[in-house]
Amino acid sequence: MAEAMEILFVLIPLAIVLMVVAVVFFLWTVKSGQYDDLEGPAHRILMDDDDPLIPRYGQDENKTEDQTTKEG
């Protein structure tokens, strides 16, 4: 029976150390913003990113010139 009790002197501190490491890791992830936006990445895939955000006037002018030469 004494041998079974000795293992508790190892397991209890080991469990406490693992718990402290898990809590510290969880607090670090919360502080770094890992859980701030859970729905954003799921909705971002549905956004239409085909159109450029900044229009390029040089390319738009070339498209209109090409269209006028093809039509005419």
Give the gist of this structure.
The chain is mostly helical and 72 residues long. It contains 3 helices and no strands.
List the helices and strands and how they pair.
Layout: H1 2-31, H2 40-44, H3 57-71
Verbal overview:
The chain is mainly α and 72 residues long. It is 69% helix and 0% strand. The chain has 3 helices and no strands. The chain starts with a helix and ends with a helix. The mean pLDDT is 79.
Cα-based radius of gyration, to the nearest Å: 31 Å
Q: Give the N-to-C terminal Cα separation.
A: 100 Å
Low-confidence stretches: none
Reported for the largest beta sheet, the result is:
none
What would the principal axes of the Cα set say about the shape? rod-shaped
Structural class: mainly alpha
Mean pLDDT: 79
Q: Please give the domain count.
A: 1
Oligomeric organization of the protein chains = single chain
Share of residues in strands = under 5%
Total count of strands: 0
**Helical amount:** 55-70%
Could you give the order of the helices and strands? HHH
Name the descriptors.
mainly alpha, rod-shaped, 72 residues
